Amino acid sequence: MRLAHRYMAILLMPVLLAGLSFVAYLGYTTQQLIADERTRCVGALLEPPLKAAQLRRSQARAVIVGSSVAGFGVDPEHLPEPGAYNLGLAFGTMRTARETLDAALRLPELQAAYLVLDFAAFQAHQRVAEPWWDENTFDESSATQNLSWATLHAVTRRVWRAGLPGLLQNREACRYQVARTGLYQPTGQGLYPGLDAAQILLSQEHAHLGWVQAFAGAFAFVSPVNQADTLTDFRLALRAAYARGIRLTVIMAPRHIRLEHLYAAVGYEPSIGRWMQELVAINEDEALRAGRAAFPLWDFAFCGGACAELPPADGSAMHWWLDINHFTPALGAEILAALAGKASAVVAGRRLDSSSVDEHLAWRAARVAELACAYPQDHQRLMNSLSTAQYGASELQFAAWAACSPNNL
Q1: Are 149 and 100 in contact (CB under 8 A)?
Q2: Predicted local distance difference test score (pLDDT) of residue 393
Q3: What is the band of 203 on the pLDDT scale with cuts at 50, 70, 90?
Q4: Could you tell me which residues come within 8 angstroms of residue 409 by beta carbon, excluding any fewer than 6 positions away?
Q5: What is residue 263's predicted lDDT score, i.e. its pLDDT?
Q6: Which has the closest alpha carbon to 80: 352, 340, 367?
Q7: Distance, CA of 159 to CA of 268 (rounded, Å)
Q8: What angle do CA 6, 12, 18 make, to 5 degrees?
Q9: How far is CA 296 from CA 151, 211, 247, 302, 304, in A?
Q10: Residue environment code for 322-347, b if the CB has 16+ CB neighbours within 10 A, otherwise e
Q11: Higher-confidence residue: 337 or 152?
């Protein structure tokens, strides 16, 4: 028996040493990575610890929080506050945004935050990512560039779960990089190598239809399975911001007209309406609770000419959009200018509160009703896609245009 145990120990020793070596290597390379000031392509596995370290060094007075929509679209150098940092995270949900804002609020120098809301990030049925941040992530006493053990443990756990394919993908899929300000920037090959602007829009339309079908066509703000309640996450994020006393601006991000059309076609319009009403109500509830004026809350959907940008005929990249969901910093700059009260020829936003939200939703319903007639080819293509088994048309609602159906075009 003892001999068997000895042989077992001998056999397991290389595995144990390999595991320890892996953890040591990961810790060392991660420390080296975050100590490097250059713009880097690091992949989704290492972006959060990199951003945490960059933010600690930056002593930012303002942060941008949200998903990759915020990460790509809002350049901190366009903000009025100096030394701002973009904490947008790829694949982020409202839970991720709330945890990120909670951690950033521990920065003593923080004065302002911009919460960029992506409607898709409120889908409670999608898997909730494990938290990246802990109480020491942005600790003001952490003058070194070292990661907290909790954050390093999170990195190790994520990498271990990703396995070799995940590591290789994280290393090779270098389609964007993280700037010193936290802004995501496409690399030279672009986010969609080999595709022109028209092909990008079409491929992303199919990708979003697949995303809808993954949840059986249903949009939910609460999921018992995932233990997710995205509207409560929004409430808690605002409550923390009100308690901290910072200036917070809530921005409902613009969507390309093709994505607006898709959401309407699959029956998401009632959920979008409820989403806006709930955000307004929660903002005013939490302001009353804190005894403060409500944070400004802006909607940039159907934002104007920029949201209806067409792919250039020569196949070159669009100016305002990377795809149907991610806008460029050029559009982000126009949005920030609009927030500052400057007139824009390409973008328009509406500040919402309880006195204006119903009127705004009526205005939005009129814009949705025009989509089928205004974009007949897009409408026909969506109807054809939704009528196939691939997207489960029986579980979707796309009969919103009785007055302008494909048969009447």
Answers
A1: no
A2: 42
A3: very high
A4: 372, 373, 376, 379, 380
A5: 94
A6: 340
A7: 35
A8: 145
A9: 33, 31, 9, 19, 20
A10: bbbbbbbbbbbbbbbebbeeeebebb
A11: 337
